[in-house]
Specification:
The protein is of the alpha/beta class. Helix content is 55%, strand content 8%. It contains 17 helices and five strands. The protein has a five-stranded mixed beta sheet with strand order 2-1-3-5-4, covered by helices on one side. The structure holds zinc ion.
Length: 424
């Protein structure tokens, strides 16, 4: 056995010497350079890579590797390699040239799609969308008879507009709830309202994700508003258009009121547009771009294709993304300084950045403007999570108990259990 292990060790050593040797670096570099000079850029890449494996700092190999990448067909793998070279820790001509080429390639890939709000469309750092081959999406209506017929008609019309405005979105009705991609249900409105100051939503969409796989989108409509009045055809139609945008994967909101995916419930007093709405150019370009990016969560696990866009190349690193979100939420707060939701969103960005001091300060602001039970709950829940992350369990427990007194949900009980476990 020992002899065998020694033998194995020697074999590994010999292989390592061959592949990691200066000889290997030069041999593969020359081979790559030959192919490069013949205009065979794609074929040259593996030899440059072998050369760089043997000598990762090879100045010429790095430079011509970037040249070959920028001349090769910009498939997914090429985009990824070029981006990685642009982010390389080695500061040389190659990484500088890669940065220039990344900008050029981004510009080229975004041709015709540059008017978008893709940063807001993501779910945190995740890119969530359906596999394009899964269209038409299967839609199941639960108890359609519990609402007036025009509710269903209006929702179906909204689906039609999404299909007609794109060349890939499609829906089909099914009778089986479990196999449905989109599960639509109608719910009684139990919210109570006092007088004029009544803020409510008409519908909401929740993704059902398990183990990074999108199982289903649940779209819940309220049957009536809190005053027990039915919604109009226009309200249902406009709401359905917007919520369908979420079911397709646009998880956030546009910051432009001209867009369908602008958040109406964030705007003042649930103001509905009196006219039928439609998707803007920005809404459509955002959706098309989303469906070109490689998803991190989809209904198919590990979805891969050389035709996808490499997300970082398009939307930048996590740092760039968070910085953009930070700016957006700050400008939102400037415009609507008395909306709790703006501060809650801002706090979540600080949390992603790991800046917990700013999270707590921003949540204090949110609390001042929190009006609804949900808003007050979310402020205290997030505060508890933040203290938990800071390992200040006593304070975490206090905030969690306040949240629980506002709304007793399973999620808060789970959090309390976690805090108690951590405390011991
Ligand atoms: Zn929305």
């Amino acid at each position: 056995m020992r002899k065998f292990l020694l033998f194995l060790f020697l074999v590994v050593l010999v292989i390592a010497l061959i592949y990691k040797s200066p000889f290997s670096a030069l041999y593969n570099y020359n081979k790559a350079k030959d192919l490069y000079q013949q205009g065979q850029y794609e074929q040259s890449l593996p030899y440059f890579e072998k050369s760089l494996f043997a000598d990762s700092k090879g100045f010429l190999a790095r430079f011509f590797y970037v040249m070959a990448l920028s001349k090769a067909e910009p498939k997914y793998s090429v985009q990824k390699k070029l981006y990685e070279m642009s982010e390389s820790k080695i500061d040389d001509e190659a990484s500088r040239y890669a940065k220039v080429q990344v900008r050029r390639l981004r510009h080229k890939l975004l041709e015709g799609l540059d008017s978008n709000y893709i940063h807001n469309a993501l779910m945190g750092n995740d890119i969530l969308r359906w596999n394009i081959k899964s269209f038409p999406l299967k839609v199941y209506f639960e108890n359609p008879d519990s609402v007036p017929e025009y509710y269903i008609d209006s929702i179906e019309k909204a689906m039609m507009l999404w299909s007609n405005s794109t060349n890939f979105v499609n829906f089909t009705r099914v009778d089986d709830k479990n196999s449905a991609d989109i599960y639509i249900k109608f719910k009684d409105n139990k919210k109570e309202c006092k007088g004029e100051q009544c803020r409510f939503v008409t519908a909401y969409t929740e993704p059902n994700i398990s183990d990074k796989v999108l199982k289903q989108m649940t779209l819940t409509f309220y049957k009536t508003n809190p005053l027990n009045k039915g919604f109009t055809q226009g309200e249902i139609y406009n709401t359905a258009l917007h919520e369908l945008g979420h079911t397709l994967g646009i998880m956030g909101h546009s910051d432009n009121p001209q867009d369908l995916m602008f958040s109406m419930s964030d705007s003042v007093n649930n103001k509905y547009y009196p006219f039928a709405q439609s998707m803007s150019k920005r809404d459509l370009q955002t959706l098309v771009l989303l469906y070109r990016l490689k998803p991190s969560i989809s209904n198919v696990k590990g979805l891969e294709s050389e035709t996808f866009y490499y997300p970082q190349l398009i939307i930048g690193s996590d740092d760039v993304r968070l910085q953009k979100k930070l700016e957006e939420y700050k400008s939102y707060i400037n415009e609507y300084p008395e909306m709790a939701s703006g501060y809650v969103n801002l706090a979540s960005v600080y949390s992603d950045m790991g800046d917990f001091e700013s999270v707590l300060q921003t949540l204090d602001k949110a609390e001042i403007y929190a009006q609804t039970v949900d808003e007050k709950y979310i402020v205290n829940y997030n505060r508890a999570v933040t203290y938990y992350n800071l390992q200040q369990y006593e304070k975490a427990l206090n905030s969690a108990k306040i949240a629980q007194s506002i709304k007793n949900e399973q999620s808060i009980q789970d959090l309390i259990n976690d805090i108690l476990k951590a405390k011991d």
